[in-house]
Design goal:
It contains 26 helices and 17 strands. The protein has about 725 residues and is an alpha+beta fold.
């Protein structure tokens, strides 16, 4: 269309300008310069493109040769573009010039090997041979052992999708890859990578993400209801804060505008300082998730709400202090001396316990500023989590100072403060009562640590919940939240999958890596005697085995709930995870299959199985679609064993059943719309259809290249 033509013309202008920048005064570019400009991972395709564009065979490209070849591709029909594809594949032993006019099995193997490298994939040589044979058998109509161009054109008519891709502008084949922006719509909802956000999911009974996600999926009325609940809570909070501020100002308007503003801000601070504590009552909020109040309040946003309230408290505190200082200075001629006297000495009538309101107020303001600065993302996620952790413990002196500063604050703080203290005491008693150990540690690709932890007898949790983990051998006083990746029905152990992203998680990975290679240090530097006693390591049975039995002491705090608890009450759930964000879904999927197995019935004589239609109070699910988006092939290794087990279990319970469908996507792999991957993706499709198994993952579900097409999904 017109838009496509305009885009092609713009691209050609960009190519011409880029060529001038690269060629300079030479007016021609070499193969190496062409590779650099095209930004192709594997030199094979750069060499093939260069050879086809170099019409005079001089070994260099002129501007006229390059633009002329590109114009022919842009304006050509699907047959002409298909011929270009054929010439790329007709290599004849890496020759730079157009080949013999046919493509044999060895040429296919060479091309597919280049395709694999372009897509950052690795397959054994026997699988590569199977792929080339599958492609050859599908396209070699006369069984001559090679593919001619008429055979390729005739056989590809059976693949309309590929012909449709050939009709796309050839510019999309040859454009350098654009820089990958941060993908804001991806679900990275594990606490390993975003420890302060709750687990998100996309299902027909839940929202896709909870806060700043751009590509929000709202499939149901419940999702729209969640949006309304958020807006209502936000509106109620803002209105109540404004009302308290206005009432406080009105009650003291006779004493001047500065004091009226100070008292109004003070009234609002009573509410919001108490709200700061209420929003961090994790145990209480987890209990509320099982009540009807979970439908009225966006409980999954409590950390985000805590941050917003904290920002407002700081702003109100600055206004409150500024108004009081203005009132004290305006009443005197020598206002600097008056302010110094006001701040330096406690005196009756100044407010607070013993007239210490000015002093406690300034101390509060300094502590709040320090806490806000140390909780910024650049500190918290920039390798300085300890700074955030220890500075946030200032909440203890903050609350003590608030009780001394505000005469009525205790009335607002009584209930949330008591619950907070109760939760902390119970959590401390529960943590110290259990003698827990990490029983196994498995080091997975991309620096992921799979921990198998002894499960306490009284530990009950729901799929998708998370716990706080403390490992004294890593850091004695640090607690970090991680999603539980095992199912509640697994009685003896808990699983955690932790990716090394920050300082603590990297130390954890390196700690078990060191134990695996060398055993525990006899006297680790910086470790106390108590911490050294908390570790014990036993070597595995085989050399090179990355899974080891161990006995490393740890403590757990939790479990704490997430919105995923509501997933079992829907009929059709769509779960979307990206990268290590699959961890809560690992628990959910296992629990779903446990419950699905309990619901299935079978005849002992003929082994016919069916699903009971009786009302299941535990699970009303009838269909589950799981979408996992990973960056590369290594990331698939994290949970391939689990996914294969789930597929096998469904095949055993219901052969050919569609209760659970897996949809895997690999963003590093090029799709069928790219000439550098079209043959590979076609071969993978053909072999998967023949063997009923994916060559990349080994699962029955085909691993798709690129990202999901959400319109089709």
């Amino acid at each position: 269309g017109t838009m496509g033509t305009a885009a092609d013309a713009e691209w050609l202008r960009w190519v011409s300008k880029k060529f001038g920048n690269v060629a300079g005064k030479e007016k021609e570019i070499s193969l190496e310069e062409f590779k650099s400009a095209l930004q192709v991972k594997e030199s094979f395709f750069a060499e093939r493109f260069f050879a086809l564009f170099d019409s005079d065979g001089s070994g260099s490209l002129s501007r006229e040769e390059l633009l002329g070849s590109l114009r022919r591709l842009l304006r050509g029909n699907s047959t002409e573009k298909l011929r270009f594809l054929f010439q790329v594949y007709d290599v004849d032993g890496f020759s730079r010039f157009p080949g013999s006019g046919s493509i044999d099995a060895e040429e296919l193997r060479v091309v597919l090997r280049g395709c694999l490298r372009e897509s950052s994939l690795a397959l054994p040589e026997e699988r590569l041979g199977a792929l080339s044979q599958a492609l050859l058998q599908a396209l070699d109509r006369d069984h001559s052992g090679s593919i001619t161009f008429p055979e390729l054109r005739e056989q590809l008519e059976a693949f309309p999708e590929l012909l449709e891709n050939l009709s796309i502008s050839a510019a999309s084949w040859l454009k350098p890859p654009s820089p990958s922006p941060a993908e804001p719509w991806l679900c990275c909802f594990s606490r390993e990578s975003r420890q302060d956000q709750r687990a998100g999911m996309c299902c027909f009974s839940r929202e896709f993400r909870e806060d700043q996600r751009a590509g929000t999926c709202c499939f149901s009325r419940e999702s729209r209801g969640d949006q309304r609940a958020r807006l209502c809570c936000l509106g109620g909070w803002v209105a109540t804060t404004a009302l308290l501020l206005a009432l406080g100002a009105l009650w003291h308007r006779e004493r001047g505008p500065a004091l009226a503003l100070a008292r109004g801000c003070g009234q609002s601070l009573n509410l919001n300082c108490a709200l700061l504590a209420a929003l961090m009552l994790r145990r209480s909020l987890t209990g509320l998730r099982s009540t009807p109040l979970a439908e009225l309040f966006p409980l999954e946003l409590h950390v985000r709400g805590h941050e917003r309230v904290g920002h407002l408290v700081l702003a109100l505190g600055i206004a409150h202090a500024g108004a009081h200082l203005a009132q004290a200075g305006l009443a005197q001629r020598d206002w600097l001396v008056a302010l110094g006297e006001y701040v330096r000495r406690a005196r009756p009538g100044a407010g607070g316990v013993g007239g210490t309101a000015p002093q406690t107020g300034l101390a509060l303001l300094a502590l709040l500023l320090a806490m806000l600065a140390c909780s910024s993302p650049c500190v918290r996620r920039g390798g300085h989590f300890e700074v955030f952790y220890w500075s946030h413990l200032c909440y203890i002196p903050v609350w003590l100072l608030l009780l001394l500063h505000g005469p009525h604050f205790w009335k607002w703080f009584l209930i949330p403060g008591s619950l907070f203290v109760l939760e902390k005491v119970l959590g401390w008693v529960w943590r110290r009562a259990g003698d827990l150990h990490i029983l196994e540690a498995k080091l997975l690709p991309s620096k992921v640590t799979h921990l198998v932890i002894q499960r306490p007898k009284s530990f009950r949790f729901q799929p998708g919940d998370y716990v706080y983990l403390n490992v004294p051998a890593i850091a004695a006083y640090e607690w970090h939240p991680f999603s539980i990746s095992s199912a509640p029905e697994q009685p003896e152990t808990l699983w955690l999958h932790i990716r090394a992203r920050g300082q603590w998680t990297t130390k954890l990975y390196e700690y078990f890596q060191q134990l695996e290679l060398h055993g525990p240090e006899p006297n680790p530097p910086g470790k106390s005697r108590r911490e050294r006693r908390s570790q014990h390591w036993e070597q595995g049975t085989g050399p090179g085995d990355s899974q080891r039995s161990c006995s490393v002491k740890c403590f757990l705090d939790g479990p704490y709930g997430t919105p995923s608890r509501r997933i079992f009450t829907s009929e059709h759930a769509v779960l979307i995870g990206a990268g290590i964000g699959i961890t809560p879904f690992a628990s959910i999927l296992q629990s779903i299959m446990f419950r699905y197995r309990r619901r299935k019935q079978s005849c002992p004589s003929c082994h016919f199985s069916w699903s009971e239609e009786r009302r299941d109070e535990e699970m009303t699910l009838r269909k589950v679609d799981f979408i996992w988006i990973t960056r590369d092939q290594q990331h698939l290794q994290w949970f391939l064993g689990l996914l294969a087990k789930l597929e096998a279990e469904q095949a055993e319970l219901e052969p050919g059943g569609k209760f659970l469908e897996l949809h895997l996507y690999m963003t590093s792999a090029l799709g069928k719309g790219d000439v550098k991957a079209l043959g590979l993706q076609l071969a993978l499709d053909l072999l998967a259809a023949r063997e009923q198994r994916d060559s990349i993952s080994g699962l029955r579900s085909r691993t798709q290249p690129g990202r999901p097409d959400w319109d089709k999904v």
